[in-house]
C-alpha cells in the first residue's frame, strides 16, 4: 500500500526535462555531518519548532523532507498542490491523521509479546493485529470517499483512488474470512514428508475446508487413518507437538508478519507525510500572523534566482516580527558574492536564500513576496565557526578539513553557501585558498553564494568576466537592505571598531599601515 | 612399466604398508616432552591414534621421508586440503550415523540412519575421485591427458622414482569406484534417498492429538493466504525470507570451514522425539511400496566401508594436525620449509652438514604468535668436521630455545615433516636424545646429579654417528671446576662416537676443545644491554657480549661507524 502524498506514485511522475539535466529522482543524501552542519548553519531548528509546536514526529518528518530537497519541478508542484489542499481542508487532514494514530496504536498494544522464533504465537498475534487493522481500513474507506469529493490535488485524489480497491468492503470481507481460517479452529492440516534423518518435514499447510458451510466432510484426513492421543501428563510430547506445529507454521507466520508490516508501514508513512503537511500549514499560519509575506515559489524558471522581499523566516520567528526583505536577481549567474559592512544583513540574506531553496524544493511556501529559482541538487554550507569549542585543530586546519569533506561530497548542480570562509588566516592566503576552491567548484557546475570580507578574493572575481559572478554589497547605513555592487576597498570592520571605541582607525589618513599590502592584479604571477 | 605390486596403495604414512610396533619407551616420550613436541602428539593422538607411532619413530629410509614430504607438499594446495577435510568430516559423520543406527530402538529409524550413513559415505568417496584426479594431472603436467592406461604408464615412467602417496591413493579410489561392489552401493544409496524423498502423507495437528492419513490433494493454505494478502502488499517487493541463507565462505581459514561443516552435520544423529517417531512409523505403514525397498537396501548394505580408506582417514590426520598447528605461526610470517634430508654414509666428508636459515622454536613461536609478539629466528650450521654447537651467553638469552630448536629440526626432518625454518639441509637422524632439567629433579643435589650422570651414560650408550644429543645446562648443580671437567669429558665422548650435539653451558671455553666444536653466543640488545634479543649467533665465546652492547649503545658499533664514515665520504 503506497501513500504518495510527497512523491507521485508509479508512472504518474511526469518528469519534465530540465536544461540543467538534474536527475529526476532524489539526489544522494548528504553525509550526516554535512547535513547537521547545514541544519545548524541555517538555524533550521527554529523553523522546525514553528512547524511542529513541540511534536517530535512532525519535527522529524519535516526535517527529513527539508534536508532531502527534490529537484524535479513536477514533484515540487505535486507537493505544492497537496499542501494547497491541506490549507483548504484542514478538518479532513486532521481526521486522516487521527486515524493513522489509532491504527499505529494497535501495533503498540500487542508488541510486548515475545514472538521471534515462535511462529505459532507470531501467527495468532498477527491474526489479531490484522483484525484490528481491517477495522481501520474500513474507516479509511469512508474518509477516502470524502477526499474524492472535496480535494483537487493529484496527491490526495490518487491516494483515494488507489485505496478504493484495497479498502473495499469485499476486500475486507475476504481478509476477515482468511483471518478466521488462520485462527485454525479445526487444527492444522499439513502435508508432510520424511527428512533423511527421519524427522517429520512439513511440506505444506493445507486448508481443512471445515470453515466452508457446504462441505460435508467432517474429517479432513482420509482413510486409512490413525490417531495418536497424547497422554495427559506427557509434557515432552506436548513440546514436541508444539515444535512440529511451529515448523509447519513458519511460512504462514512470515506471510502474515509481512502483511502486518505492510499495513502498519502504510499508516506510518501516511502519518509521517501528513505530519509534514500539517507542519507546513502551521508555518504558513504563524508567518501570516506576523504579517510576514509568504508565496508559492516558481521552480520552473530559467534564472538561477529571482526574488522580491526575501527574508529569513527563522529570524522573523525569533523576533516575532516581519523583517526587512531583500530583492535579488542573479540573471543566470551561478556565483553570488556578498560583501560589505558587518551586521549589514549579509549572513541573514545567505540563510534566507538557503532556506528558500530548501523550502521550495520541499514543496513548501517560501518566505518572500516572490521567489523563482532553478532547483539545485543539494544544499551545503561552509560557515565560519563562531567559536570552536573543540580546539583539536587550528582554526584554519578545521576550516580546510571541513571544506575537504564538502568537496568530497559535492556534486554538480548542488548549491554551496559560504559564510566568511577562510577568514581565520590572513587575507592574502585566505583569498587565494577561497578563490581556488570557488573557481574549481563553479567550473564544475556548482552554484555558490558566498559572503566574504576577503577583498582580494572578491575583487579578483569582479575583474574576471569569465566567471560571471553577481555581486551584492551591504550598505554602511545599517538599513539591512543590500544593494547590487562589487566590493569596496574600505574596511567596514574598522568602522565598526571605531564606532564602538570612538577611534578613527578607518580614516585613510590615520589608518596604520597594513602588514600585507594588497598586490595589484597585474603583478600577480 | 611399474610393477603392479608397487602401485598398490596401503597407507599414507607407511609406504611399506605396516606400521612399526609402538614400543612406548619412556625415553622417546621424554624427548618429545623436552622438545615441546608432545603437544602436537596429544593433538594427533586425540583425533588419530594410528598416527601416534609416526610421530615418535624417526624414519630410516630416505625414500620414506620423501614419501611423506610429498604428502605434505601436496597439502599446501588449498583445494586438496579442503577436499580431504571434507572427506574426513563426511567419514566421521557417516560413522556417527552408523552408531546412532545401532543405538536406535526403532527398527525403521535404524534403517533410515543406516541408509543416511551409506549415502554420506558413497558421496564422500565420489567427491574424493575428482579431487585426487586433479592431483594426478597437476603432478604430471599437460603431457598426460589421455586415458587411465596412459596415466599409469606416465606414473611409472623413469624420473618419478619416488612413489607419490596421492597418486597411489587416486588410483585406489578410481578402481574402488569402478568396482561392482561400490557401484551397487552407490545405486542403493541413491535409490533409498529417492524413495524417502517421494514419501508424502497428511497429518492433522490438534492440541494433544495427531491424526495421520494418506496424502490427498486439497487447497493450499499458504497459497490462499498469499493470494488474499497480496492485495495489501504493493508497498515494497516482499522477498522470500531465507534465514538459513548459505553463505559461501570465501575465507582462507580452514578451521572456519571445518567448523561450519561440522555444525551442519550434527543435528541428524539426534534422537527423534516420540511424536515424530510415531508419525514416521504409522505414516510409513501407508506406503509399503516405498519403505519395503528401503528395508531391503539396508539389509544388503550392512558393511560398506573400504578398509583402506578408513585407514587413510585415520592416518592423514597426522599431516593435517601438524599443518593446523603450524598455520597460525605461518600466518604471522614465520617461515616453514620442507628440509633437504641427507643420508650419505657417515664416513663421507660432507655427510653430516647441517645448514639451516631462520630457524625458530615451535613452542615459543606458538606462544608469542598468540600474544602478537615478534619471534626471533636464528641460523644454525655445522660444517665439515664440526659436530657440536656449544651455546653460551647471558641467562634468558635464548640459549635453551636454540637448543630445543635444533632438536626439533632433526626430529621433524627424520619424520618426513616440514621444519620451522626458511631453508634447511638436515642430516638424517636415527634418534634425538635430550638432557633437560626437569621439575621432578628439584630434590636433593646428589639425587639430581646421579640422575643426570645416569641419563648421560645411557644416552652415550645408545648414541650412534647418526644421533643428535641435546644437553641443556648439565652439571649446573656441581662446583664450577667439577662441571668443567665433567662437561669436557662428555663432549669428548660425543666427539669420539661421532654423534652431533647441541650443548648449552656457561663454561664457554668448552667451545674451544677442537675442530668439532662451534661456539654460539646469545646476544644482547645494543640499546639496552639488560635486554636480551634472543638472537644466538656463531661467535667466539669470550664474555664480551656486554661490552659490545655498551659500545653499540654509544654509537660505536662497527656498522654505525662504517655508516658515518661512508656518509662523510659521500658528502666530501
From TrEMBL, chain A:
Which SUPFAM superfamilies would you find in this protein's record? P-loop containing nucleoside triphosphate hydrolases
Recorded hits in InterPro entries, A to Z, give: DNA_mismatch_repair_MutS_C (IPR000432), MutS (IPR045076), P-loop_NTPase (IPR027417)
Q: Where is this region: Disordered?
A: 1-32, 505-525
Provide the DNA mismatch repair proteins mutS family domain boundaries: 333-505
Output the superkingdom of the source species.
Bacteria
Here the segments flagged for biased composition (Basic and acidic residues) are 9-19, 506-525
State one Pfam family annotation.
MutS_V
- Which UniProt keywords are listed? ATP-binding, DNA-binding, Nucleotide-binding
Record protein name field? DNA mismatch repair proteins mutS family domain-containing protein
Protein source organism:
Brachybacterium halotolerans
Automatic annotation (TrEMBL), chain B:
What ranges does the record list as Low complexity composition bias? Answer: 257-268
- Basic and acidic residues composition bias: residue spans: 240-250
Record bears the keyword DNA-binding: yes
**Location of region: Disordered:** 139-165, 233-268
Read off the Pfam families from this record.
Answer: MutS_V (PF00488)
Q: Which UniProt keywords apply?
A: ATP-binding, DNA-binding, Nucleotide-binding
Q: Is this entry keyworded ATP-binding? A: yes
What are the DNA mismatch repair proteins mutS family domain coordinates in residue numbering?
386-572
Entries under InterPro entries matching the protein: DNA_mismatch_repair_MutS_C (IPR000432), MutS (IPR045076), P-loop_NTPase (IPR027417)
Q: What is this protein called?
A: DNA mismatch repair proteins mutS family domain-containing protein
Query: Organism, per UniProt?
Result: Brachybacterium halotolerans
